Amino acid sequence: QVQLVESGGGLVQAGGSLRLSCAASGSIDSIASMQWYRQAPGKQRELVATITSGGSTVYADYVKGRFTISRDTAKNTVFLQMNNLTPEDTGVYYCKANVFFRTLISTHWGQGTQVTVSS
Fold first, then answer.
1. Is 90 exceeded by the pLDDT of residue 49?
2. Could you tell me the CA-to-CA distances from 49 to 27, 39, 104 in Å, in that order?
3. Residue 103: pLDDT band by 50, 70, 90 thresholds?
C-alpha cells in the first residue's frame, strides 16, 4: 500500500507564492515520474507539471516561468514552487506518483490540497 500526503496549500493574494509538498510512503522500491495536477471548481482535472526519475521536467503552458517542480528522490517527495500566482490558479492540487514495487508498477494519488488566490 502506498500513501501520498500533500501539504502547503492555503490562501494567498495575487502575485504571491506557495510551495506544495507531496510525500510518498509505503510499499515503494522506486518512483518513476511524479506529477502535479489541479482541479478548479466546475472544471476537469488538468496536468500542471511532471518530473521524471531522471529529473526531466515538463510544464503546462499556463504555468511555465512561474511554477517549478522538483523532487527529493531519497525522501520520495515532490515539490511545486508556485510564484506570481493569479486567481486562475485557484483549485485543488493533487500529486500523482507512478510507483515500482517488486515487479509491478502502480499509480497513486494524494488527497489534494486547496490553493486559493485572491485578487
1. yes
2. 24, 13, 24
3. confident
Per DSSP bridges, beta strands 91-101 and 57-59 are: unpaired
Dist. CA 30–CA 59, nearest whole Å: 23
User: What values do phi and psi take at 89, rounded to 5?
Assistant: -85, -5
The residue to which cell 472544471 is assigned: 43
* Inter-residue contact 32 to 52 (CB < 8 Å): yes
**Per residue in 50-89, pLDDT tens?**
999 999 999 999 999 999 999 999 999 999 999 999 999 9
Q: Are strands 91-101 and 113-118 parallel, antiparallel or unpaired?
A: antiparallel
